[in-house]
Structure formats: C-alpha cells, structure tokens
Amino acid sequence: MKFKISIITLAMVAFFGQSCEEYLEEELVSDVSAGSYYTTVQGFEDAVRATYSWMKPFYGVERGFTMTVFGTDVHTNGADGGHKPINFYDTDLNSEQNMMRDTWRDFYRGINQANAVINRAEGIEGLDEEVKNQRFAEVRFLRALYYFNLVRFFGDLHLTLEETEGVETEARRDPASEVYAQAIIPDLEFAVNTLPSTQSDQGRATKPAAEFLLAKALLTRSYQPFGDGNDLARAEALLTSVIDNYGFQLADNYLELWGLDTLAVPVNIASAEDNPEIIFAVQNSKQQVDEGLDNQGHRGHLYFLMEYDKLPGMTRDTENGRPWKRFRPTEYQLSLWDRTIDRRYDETYKHVWFSNSEGNIPTDEAGNRLYELGDTAVFIPGPGEADRWDGVAKQSVPYVVITPQPQFDGDNRFYNEIWYPTLTKFIDNTRPNRQHTQGQRDFYLMRLGEAYLLRAEARIQQGNAGGAAEDINIIRRRAAWDGMEAEMEITAAEATLDFLLEERAREMDGEGHRWFTLTRTGTLVERVRAHNPQGAPNIQDYHIVRPIPQEQIDRTFGGYPQNPGYPGADT
Amino acid sequence: MRNALLLARQALGIWLLCLFSAYSLHAQNTISGTVTDGENSESLPGVNVLVKGSTIGTITDVEGNYSLSVPTDAETLVFSSVGFLTEEVEINNRSTIDMAMMPDIQSLSEVVVVGYGTQEKRDVTAAIASIDNEAIERIPTPSPVEAMQGQVAGVDINQGGGRPGQNASIRIRGRRSINASNDPLFVVDGIPLTGGGGINDINPNDIQSIEVLKDAAATSIYGSRGANGVILITTKRGTAGKTVVTYDGFYGVSSVLRTVDMMNGQEFADLRRESRRIDPVTGQVAWDGEIPADNLAFDDPVEIESIAQGRSTDWQDLVLQNGFRTNHQVGVRGGSEKTQFNTSLNYYNEEGIIPGQDFRRITGRINLDHRINDVFKVGMSTLTSNIRQNWGSGAAWGEALATVPLGVPFDEEGVPIFLPTNDGIRTNPLSELVDGAYTDERNFTRIFSSLYLEANIAKGLQFRVNFGPDIRFEREGRFRGSLTNANRGGPADARIINRSNIGYTLENILTYDKEFGGIHRLKFTALQSIQGLRREEHESNVANLPYESQEFYNIGTAEVKGDLRSRLEEWTLASYMGRINYELNDRYLFQVSLRADGSSRLAPGSKWTVFPGASVGWRLIDEPFMANAGPLSELKLRASYGSVGNTSIDPYQTQGGLQRRVYAWDESPAFGFGLNQIPNDQLGWEISSTLNLGVDFGLFAGRLSGSVEVYQTRTTDLLLERKLPFTSGYEEVLQNIGETRTNGVELGINAVPIATNGGFNWNIDFNISHYQEEIVSLGLRDEDGNELDDQGNGWFIGEPVKVFYDYEKIGIYQANEVDLANDLENKVPGEIKLADTDGNGRVEPDDRVILGTDIPDFLGGITNNFSYKGFDLSFFFFFRMGQMVRSRFHDSNNSLFARYNNLDVDYWTIDNPTNAFPRPNQNQERPRNGSTLTYFDGSYVKLRNVTLGYNFPESITESIGLSRLRVYASAQNPWFWSRYETFDPEAPDRPNEDDGDPRQTEVGSGVIPSSSIYLLGVNIQF
C-alpha cells in the first residue's frame, strides 16, 4: 500500500509539477535579433557597418566587373565563364540572367538596411546626436550609391525610403527622374553637408566622397531628358571642391597607384591603398580574405589573365596568377595607346612570363633544354610591336611569342580567346596560394584621376574645351614617359567627348566604369557596334538598360513590368 | 528540466535495485510427450516447452519429442513456436503430455504496437501497417528505412545512390508541407528520436517489428510531431526459457549496376571539332561554318597524340571497383519469468564501388525486463552505436565523368598524371584515390536508451514512467591534399566539424483497463511528457597545412586559420494527451484522443495547440448475421478522423535573426549585423487533418487477407517560405498561409496460394498505393477573390506542390528554319526549339508550362516466398511509376560545351538534322534553354532482392550441437527497368551533401551510381 501511495504521489508530481511557460521559452543565444539588438548603440553601429557590407558582393568580384567591363567597346570575352551573353547581347541576356538578379537583389538589400538604420535610430539610449547624424549621412551616401547603380542599370524602378517591416509583395515602377530627385540627390546633399572631410576609420564615407558621387550623379542626369539646367555647373563645382580642398594628390606615377614594378609585378599592394589619390575605396582586409571570413575580396586578379599556364615552360603560380580568361581587350582598346609617349600600357600589361616549370621547357633534338628556369618562356610584344615578329622571327627564338594575327594561320600562338595581352593592374601575389580567389586589394571606387576626367567631361558638355584640355593634360602628363610630357599634351580643339572617352579607356582600363560611362554619354550602342566584334551583331538600342530579373516579375503581386525590348516586355 | 532529471534518477535507482534480485529452485518431476502439427499431424521439432512462471524449459527434438524435469509445484506447461498459436496446458500430475499445435496463419490476430501501448490487430481502428523482422532481415542493408522500401503500402522510400551509409528519403502518404520537414517521426521502443535523425544508427537486425502509423487518428496522439506519419520501431526483447545464442552473418560483393554512356576519345574528338565550327571570314562561331584543323581545335598535344593513336581512356572503368558488404551479429537472449534479456553485438562493414567510400558500424544492444514484484516492473533498452563513414571525394566520380577521354591517366611509372590534359580545371580522378590525398571521415557515436518503470497500482490501473536520453556525437574531419581537384596543386586544407545533440524524453503514462457488464470494455490512457534537444555545433577551417601526413589532426599548424563557427540550438516541447478506447460487444470499437502540445519554436501566444483524433471500427464478421459468411473469415470496417501538427521548422524563426556581415576599416575588422529574416511573431502550427476509411478482410480461413485504405488529408496554415520580390529587401518569409489537399488509396494483400501437406508453400505480399496532391490555396487572391497562383515560387492552384515549370522543347531548329529561329527566339539552327504556347510569335517567359510533377501515378511492391522442405526462395520487386524527374546529372554532364567529356547523345550538326539534342558550341557553357533537356519519365521497376535459403534438417544440426542452421545466397538489386536510360532514376539530389532531406524530385549531378550485390549468408542458433 505504501508503494501505491508513493506511486500516486510520484504521478501527481510528474503530471502537475512542471512550470510550462518557463519550459517553452525560447532564448536566442548564438544569434541576435533586430528587435533587441538594433536598440543598442553597438547594434546601431553594427547596422551601419552592415550597410557598407552590401558594396562587397558587387565591387571587386566577378559580378561587378562583368556588369561594367563586358559588352563595351574596350573589352570582349575570353574563353571561359558562363556570363558571355552580357558581352554578346544575345537572347541569353534576359530576365533569367543571374547577375541581373543578384545585382538587383543585393542593392535593394543594402537600401533596406540603410532604411532600417534611419528608421530604428530613434530613442537609442546613449547614442550621441552628432554621431547619429554622421552615421545617417553615411548610410544615405550608401543608399544613394545603391540607387545610383540600380537606376543606371535598370532605369525606372521601385523607390522606397522606408524600412520593410511587414511582408511586402507589391512593388512599383517609379520614374528614374524621381529616384534621382527623391533619393540620390537629396541623400548626397545631406551627406555633403553632414560628413567630415576625413574619417578616422579608413573606408567610411567622407564629404569629398559624397561630393564626388553627387557630381557624378548630376553629370549622369544632365544627359537625361529630365536633367536640370544646373546639373553640369554643380557637378563641375563639386569636382573642383574635391580636387582643390582636401589635399588629394595624383600618385607620382601610374605604377605606384597599383603597387607594381616596371615589369607589372606587384611589389607593394598594401601601401598603394594609402595613396593620396584615393578618394573612396571598398575595403578588403588581408587577414579577412586570407582566412575566408571575407568570401569576396578583390578578385580582379583573376579575370583579365590569359592562359599562360598551358604554355611551354610555364605552370600556374601565385605570382603570375590564376587565369580565368574572362575579359580580353578589343583591338580598339589595344590601339589606343601611343606606347612611345604613354607608359600606361607598358606598366599595366604583362609582356614577359619567365619560365617557372622545368618539366615542360622545350628541348632540342638532342634532348637539351632550349632555355632554363627564370628565362623568358612567353613574350607578348603588344600593340605597335607585332610587325617585327613575323613567322621567321618567331621561329628564331626558343620561347613562345604571341602576336595578333588572323585565326587561320597554321600556328595557334596568336591572340584569341585564350591568349591575349593581359592586364595586370589587379594582380595579387600576396594571396596565400595560387588557387585563392579572394585578393586583398581595396577596390578603388573613386580616385582623383577620375575626378579630373569627370570635370573635363562636365566642361566639354558646357562648351569649355580649354578647361577640359587642362584637366585631361594633368592626367596625360602623369602618364607620360619621362621627358615625353609635352608630347602627351593636347590642345583645346582636341578636347572632344570622343577623345575624353578614349582617354578614360586608357586611364581607367578595367576599373569597372566603362559600361556606365558609355550609357551615361549615350555612346554604348554605336561604340559596341564599331569596336566589339562579339557584341556588334546583336546589340540593340534597348540594351542601354538591363532586363528586370524574372524573379522580381514572378514574385511581385500583380507582376512587374519588363524593360522594353526584352522578352516579356509589353509591346 | 530539473524535475525530469529527478525523476530519471529515481527511475534509475529503482532499476539498479532490481538487477540484484535472485532466482529460486525447487524439487523435480519429469514430464515427456510429443508435439505435432494439428493440421497434418506431422511431428514438430523446435517447439519451446516451458513451465509457466519459471525459466525451466526445453525444446522438442527432431521427432517432436521432449522430456522435462519440472518442480513438484509446477501447474502449467506453455508450448510455443513461431507460426503456431501458443498453448497452455494444466499438468494435473500427468507425466505424459502430448500437444497438437494449431498454425497461426490468422495474421489479424497479431498484436500491433500503437502509440503509447499495444493493441490486438482485430481491435485496431486506425490505418497502421506492420512489417516483421523477417521481412526486414531479408534485405541486407545497414538502414532500417531501406529495409522497408516497397514493403508497405503508402510508404515511399527513395535511396540516394550508391554511397555506403547514404540516408534514404522517406515519405508517408506523400508530402504535405512545402517548407517544413516531411520526414516522419521515428519512435524507438517508445522514445522519439530527438538527436538529429541518424536512423542508420539503428541496426536492422535488432528490430522485432516496424509499425507505420499512417492516418491522423493513429498519429494524433503524437500531436505536433505526427504530421508526416509515425514509424514505431520495436526492438527484440528476451523471452523466458532456454538461453538462445544466435549468429547471423553474410558477405557479399557489390558492383556497379549501370555505368553511364559517356563519349569515348573518338566521339569526343568529333564533338570538339563540331563545337569549334567557325565562319572562316569573320572568325566567329557559326552553325554552318567550317571545322578548323585539329591543331586549332585541340589545345593540347596529348589530345592530338591520342587522336593519332586512336587512344581513349575509360575513366569510369578506372575509378570503379568491386565493393563488399559484410555483417556479423551475435545475439544472446533468454531469461526467467522475472527477468528477460536480449543482447546483441553487431559489426557491419561496407566498401563502396568507388575506392575511399565506406561505412563501418558497430552496435551493441542490451534489452532487459525485470519484474520486481506484483506491483513494479522495470526495464531498459539501450543502444550504443559507433559509425565510421568515409564519405570519399566527390571529385573521384565527378572527374571520372568530366575528364576528357583523350587525356592519359598514368605516366611511365604508373603514377597518376595530375592533369591528364592541359586543362587546369580537370584533374585526374585517380589522384583523389591516392592514399592520403583526400579524407572525409565522419564519425557518429550514439547512445539511445529507453528506461521504464511500470507499476500496477490497482486492478486494471497501471502507471508507467519512460525516460529516454538520446545522445549523438558527430565529427566530420576533412582533409584535402594538394593534388586533389579541390586544391589543384595549391596547399592542403582541412576542416573539422563537431556536433553534439543531447535530447531527452520524459513521459508519465497512466492507463486504466476495465471490462464490465460482460459486453463493455473501456481503456483509458493519459500521458504527460516533455521533450527537448540541445544541439551544439563547432566548425574550424584551415588552409595551407605545412605537411600533408597530419590530415586534420594538427590544424593549429596551418599557416592560414580560416573561418570558425559555433552555434547553439535548443528546443523544447511539452505535451498532455488523453485517449479512450471503448469496445461494445467485442465488435463495435471506438477511440477518441486529444493531445495538447506546446512548442518553444513558435511565437508566444501561438505555442499551444490541441490535436483531436477519433476513430470507429465495426467488426462485421462477428455479427450474428455473418455467421454463414461463406469464405469470409475476417471483415472489419474502419473510419477515422484526426489532426496533427508540424513544428519541424528551425528554432528562432519567429525572432528574425540578424546575419553577420563582413566589412573592414582598412585592415581592422568592421563586422556588422544586417537584416536577414523578417520576424514573424504570428508563426503557428501547420495543421494536417486526415479522414481515413479502411476495410480489413480475410478469406478462406485467412489464406487471402488484406486491407484497403482511402484517405484525404487537408493541410492548413501551411508553413510557407514565401519568396518575396527583391525590392522588399528580403528574399523570403516563413508564414502560415495556404492549404494543400492529398487524396489517396492504398491496398495491401497477403495471399497463401499454396500450402500443402507435402511442405510446399507459396506466400505473396503485395501492396500498391496511389495519391494525388494539390495546392488548394496560397493566400493570394485577385480583386474578385479568386485564388491566385504564385509563379515566383512555382506554386499553382490545383497542381501538386512540386511541379516542373519550364519551357517545352519541341525539337531543334533545322537548317531551313533560319528565319523562324530568329523570329521566335533569336536563335540559329542547331539550337533548342521551344514551344510558343500562346502563339504570339515570340517565345517569352509566359510560354512556360507545367511539364509534369514528381508524384508517381502509383508505387508499391510484391514479394513472393516459396518454401519446400528445408528450402526457401523469395524474390521482391518494387515499382514507382509515372513520376517525372529533373536530371541535374544532365546539367553537369551534357553541356555540349566540348571542353569536358559529355554524355554520348545524338547531337545536331548540319549533316545530322536530329531533333534530339542541340549543336555543340564552344562558346556556351551549356546550351540555351538546356534545362528543357533534363526532364524525364522517372518510372522504374526494380528487382530488389532474390534469396534462396536452405535449412539443414535437425538430424544434421543436432549432430553438430545446433538447433538451427540456415545458409542462403542472395542477390540485391540484380536488375531494374526504367525509361530514364542514362542512369538510375532513383537517385534523389541533395541540396548539399550534409542535408538529410534530399530533393526527391531531382537526379543528383554528383550522385554515386547504385550497385548490385551478390552475397552468401548463414544463420546459426544453439
């Protein structure tokens, strides 16, 4: 009986003895939630940093390069990669192209993050009012950058300045003019008025960066039908402020800007990033990219390289880079430099590959190696130099010489999608191994060199060719071989928009602006038709904006309109 | 929790006391006799004869004779044998007792395990299917799930290819949920598995029976965890009587079932040449251009050399090997009336058909039951399991398919050449297999226990405490050397992941069973339970290891310390359940139940829900008017209705977690936390309600029996991961919206066409099922209130949850269709021609159509067992017909890019105007609209098992001291038929290799080919 009583007691305890409410409470330990974390000063600062982070999936990785380098007059496709339709302008450049989708998606995520910072800042205990205002200016700078990119890629689109707090399945198509008028311009005006000239954290938005971006936005708008009459004058004034007021200086020479030596080998990447020419750069930290914490980094070192590692005497190594063969210069691009006076081709294109692989050095009939490790294995004479390398001259040297020749010539050591002059501006020999894709370089989004070229453009558009020539000559003098400065200078009469576009191609080669430059100036279609043999047959007038991603269209309640010309657009 | 531990300690204490109780002995008499088969009067060897209430017993000899010394106070003898009804006989001071035993072919009289108890099968009112140990053991596999494949109506099991130890996917009555898990709940000896799946930790040889609870009336007592059906696994327990020692073992050799028809060197060379066709004037790719000379089409002297020599490498053949499977199990079981035990030790080892892939498991089991006195009984079943699985390098198979056949595998010294051609991407698959080059070793250690204390408080009133700790440790160690596809000559890297899952279940169950008035029987069950899981995870990644021989055992030496992660996840569930069974006149059966569950995963205010269930049964056969029912021996009608919930979403979803974002100020870290999920503080249960109608029937004295089930399941408040327009700043949100409906019908039949006195018997088990699934609502309506599709997610009203929505390929543009190709799609001849379904003269996204669904028209299996004298023969087919598969395999291996090796397909050229596959093109990594080439009819029929066995007669076994000796030969998967000719269509894709929930609908790109196994085995008992 005692047993029975104790059992019943046990049962009672078991049935009724537990506090259920406490038992079912859920406590988030390893993560944090917006509701609790963004209400603290630390959370606010982390939300701001998160807004910056949305630059990284675009700038410095394949997507940003592909969207701006491909399909222009100066670059066409190499052998590899699945995104050639962006160069071809064929029917695969459509709403299902995943780079369109990802670009669209990530910039909107950045915009929502910026909206959230502003939305949630009220009533945070201990948040200094001045700090708060400055951070607002930073995120508004970023929001403007994100909208500016979106509107340049896609034209009219959904504009919102409010954080998404519930489930939102609807989207509008607001006119591009409103995106400038309500978001880009006022955000940047606020940033210009609020941000300090310098920031102790390298990489935060500053007043000159905001002025630069606002100038570019105004310059871009000035070409549009909805442009304001003052846009060009304001752009010029803002750029003058950037050039004059903050102590930025052009790097002493072009090599230094990229941390390269005279053979286009990187020698000091880290110090190049501290160059006084840099106005604003997307930050990459060596430790983060090496350790894989930052899975993006600067990957520009991959895309412009030709496949040297398949050639005799060569194997892939970290110094020479991992050749992804994405972008290859067009004949037009290669024709732009006068190498007798202009040093920029020679300093950022690789001419010589030195043998790093004993095993596949070619041998003579007796089995003796034709050259030794460290000797020249591959040579690209480059523009203007090819004529002296006819078939006989090529046969007379033991190494491979690659020259531009027609495809059907018996020997395959000519420029093609695999072998071509290789831009080494972004090469990074500090990567921990030859396969590592994330490089440590910062992505230079704004530099003083471009400020001069943008001011020159504003001056040309305002009819001030003399002023434009002055700006262009500053850049050209820096690019001159020693003693050739005078030969590089141009006259006011030469300072046309066409010349400026060519100068930008020389100075800003591969830096991720070309597609924007051509669409801004309304020259994309004509220039691709003239200079890009792969894109020329297909490009149409509607290609000045990108297709709206299909997933945006499918997921939006009631649909979302496609840009004209693309499959699915209202006709 | 503190209460739970306290109770556990109490239970454990009592249990330990019980281990030390003693046995007693008495004075002896001798009884002897002969046991015969009551049907044919033949003598019956091997029958257990036991003094009731003691451990004293013997078994009959080959003539059916026995002789037994019994205590003077013994009153009753118990005769038992598998396949016969157990008989009890009063001794009444007799010294000779003969017994004629009656065969037990009336399967409906079996006891089946139901949730929180057992029931006689005749009384069951819900849809429950059973498989016994014989059917399980027939399939030599390490996985209890695989062993069930094709054997139960309404249970759809798909194996994920041929990797040893691979998890199979399991769906009971199809799929209800779109986003929440569709995996059933596994309950082992009463305790739900909490610790991260791992059903393969359980040794199928230890299983006595598996019960599948299919309808909601059966599963609703599991409330929130029962939505996808419940699988009850009961392990073998000891029985009183002579101690029995068994040994079971087999060894078999496996080989690939079907290789893939990839191109050989010559075929690949032609593909490459065709892909290089260019316009000689412009130098541009052109479908009608010229094929350049080989020195331009081929980059590599090796390729040109191979072409000249007619040399071709069959990489698949170099990589594939014969594998093996072996299993050894030793079991000891027995006990006295007070204490019964069953212990086993098992070793299973399998080497796959690709070197470096293996699965080795050691399990130990102790099941104990002990009666302390009239009131208390305690017991346990404890499983300890250790698995070492070598996952192998995915590149071994992937590269075997992709590396071009013109490459050369070995150098003069027989060492694999790392780059068989000068393509830097394609490495030698054999390099992955070099000893020490690549290791991906996964260890799993599990302790799963179920402890109980039972108390008979009063007549019919019983109280039971169950406590089940479930502990699983997982360790994944991966090392990738320099000469592997992952590192391609770069330095070695390593990764270690440790996970610990500590789960527990504590249950208090009160049952009351009473008969009154002679015609009423009432049974009441009350349950209170708590469950919880704490899951910790830690991951370290490093790169640039200084020396390779360390593998992943000294990662601190790496030059580059990579990403570190750790994570804690906890959930709890509290429940109350009550159930009443009422029987009137032994033929009107009623059951009602109610379960209340509270889950920590859901939002405050939505945490608790009540799940009702009710069922009725009418044993028509027992009605007086059925007394002359002719051949009918069983007829029962059943109806049930109930609802269950699904809580299988990740914890913390209601809170809207932030995501760490990486940024830097110069070289200093500047991590941020960014918005990632929209918090949904409304998140509640997903509820499935099922109406089930069933008939159980038996004919010709049970020679033909079976059941038919018809059901409809409606799932409401679907946990939907709704994809959002990107302009919202989010990708998706988890919501309770929408509704699906599944209608199904199932038939299971057992037939004994032949059962002769001469000993020839033929037994057939057959099952077939069919279901239809449709989305009823997605929570989207137009202005007029009509339900709308959700194209962005591929969800359509009236269609199944998973449909294939794409363009329809209608052929290839031919050379005379230049203008048509250009007008419709801006294409050229040789490219895929799509259907312009709306006929507007342009192929646009609106022309996409629903091509098919992954739901089969029907599926099932058929087993035939023959026995004659000592021989037995069985073969088992299963089939799954009418489903469409999306072949990711084709995405990867049919790019027609001519850089990598390709499936040997009939591709278009200007001289070969086929409509099958498009023209190879060096400028496209895959053909435009290439996804349209990947949809296939996935129907298949497989011969899963053929076994021939022989039981040695007792005259032989006795002479060598055994009570049973059986040898058998068996073939697994020797044959299959399918319309998907490339490969095995039963090869579901996994979104990532660690995911236990494969996408059933897609044939994986890197899936390991399935294998056939031929094996020999032996069963010994003494």
Structure description:
The complex is a heterodimer of chains A (571) and B (1022). In chain A, the strands form four sheets. A three-stranded mixed beta sheet of chain A has the order 5-6-7, with no helix packed on it. A two-stranded antiparallel ribbon of chain A has the order 1-3. A two-stranded antiparallel sheet of chain A has the order 2-9. In chain A, helix 4 (41-53) packs antiparallel against helix 7 (98-120), helix 9 (176-194) runs antiparallel to helix 10 (207-222) and helix 10 (207-222) packs antiparallel against helix 11. Chain A has helices at 2-16, 20-23, 34-37, 41-53, 62-69, 85-88, 98-120, 129-154, 176-194, 207-222, 231-245, 254-258, 269-272, 286-291, 300-303, 331-335, 344-348, 391-395, 448-461, 465-479, 485-488, 497-507, 514-520, 524-531, 550-555; strands spanning 75-77, 278-282, 327-329, 349-350, 352-354, 376-379, 400-401, 422-423, 443-447. Chain A is globular, with a radius of gyration of 28 Å. Chain A starts with a helix and ends in a 16-residue tail after the last helix. Chain A is mainly α. The longest helix of chain A has 26 residues, at 129-154. Chain B is mostly beta strands and 1022 residues long. Helices cover 9% and strands 46% of the residues of chain B. In chain B, the strands form twelve sheets. Chain B has a 22-stranded antiparallel beta barrel. A five-stranded mixed beta sheet of chain B has the order 10-15-16-13-14. Chain B has a four-stranded antiparallel beta sheet with strand order 3-2-5-6, with no helix packed on it. In chain B, strand 31 (664-665) and strand 32 (668-669) form a beta hairpin. The longest helix of chain B is centred in the first third of the chain and has 17 residues, at 2-18. Chain B is globular and about 110 Å long. The two termini of chain B are 46 Å apart. The interface between A and B is large, with 116 and 109 residues.
